[in-house]
Amino acid sequence: MLDEGYPLTTESNALRDIVLPPSLLNKILAATGVSGLSAAAPAPFSSPIPWRKAGLRYNNNEIYFDIIEELEATVSRTYRSGNVVASNVWGKILCKSSLSGTPDLSFSLTNSKALRDYSFHPCVRLQKFLQTNQLSFVPPDGNFTLLTYQLPVPSPNPTAPPALPVHLKSTVSLHDYGGTFEITTTARSSKMLENVCVELKLGNSATGADCTYTGSGGQSAGGGFGGLSINGGSVKWRYDPQTKVWLSI
């Protein structure tokens, strides 16, 4: 919603109070030419909290939190192949709230000082977090992102690079009219890994790639792209002629 060209509010809960969504009853009344029977719209900004509607009621009061983290790392190919050059964890806390009234929630993070480049939903009281390291907020109704953050990858040895959940090793051989490369990945953890992606910069002079996968599920080969289903999962590769990157997902 804009006021003289400036954003007045972008909260969906407040906008629903101002602009009523279309309904089947309104369409029938408009088609028959009957007016004055539709329910009156609630007063705009009737809730003192912009991101939460007033008068919410639920039979079962519950709220769910999902923590999703993605690990991104750069691995050395030449010097001590397999060593981590740089790594970061990108995370976010997703919430689904079904709470009645105006609940006021608070909880603490185990090591909030490790968070970097964090960004909160407007419902979080920032000053209280800076003073007490507690997340205190009145949640919006429905789905929302409470927090996004960045974390360094922990390492048991401060002088050594952090260990990744997979070990990655690459071998590249260049010839007069091309070259070959071999990438080996080995899981270091018994936990299931999802959406593992390996990128290899082939260089500006590369024009294509022929790939072969070898593993417990068998062997498969292909040209610019291909795929193989393994134990319910999949391994895919693709050559991008613009970025010169070969992907294995």
Automatic annotation (TrEMBL):
Pfam families hit by this protein: Adap_comp_sub (PF00928)
InterPro entries, per database record: Adaptor_comp_med_subunit, AP2_Mu_C_sf, Clathrin_mu_CS, MHD
Oxidoreductase among keywords: no
GO CC terms in record: clathrin adaptor complex; endomembrane system
Keyword Membrane: yes
Localization annotation: Endomembrane system
Annotated SUPFAM superfamilies: Second domain of Mu2 adaptin subunit (ap50) of ap2 adaptor (SSF49447)
BP terms from Gene Ontology: intracellular protein transport; vesicle-mediated transport
Keywords: Membrane, Protein transport, Transport
Domain MHD: 60-249
Name of the protein this chain belongs to: Apm-3 protein
Native source organism of the sequence: Thanatephorus cucumeris (strain AG1-IB / isolate 7/3/14) (Lettuce bottom rot fungus)
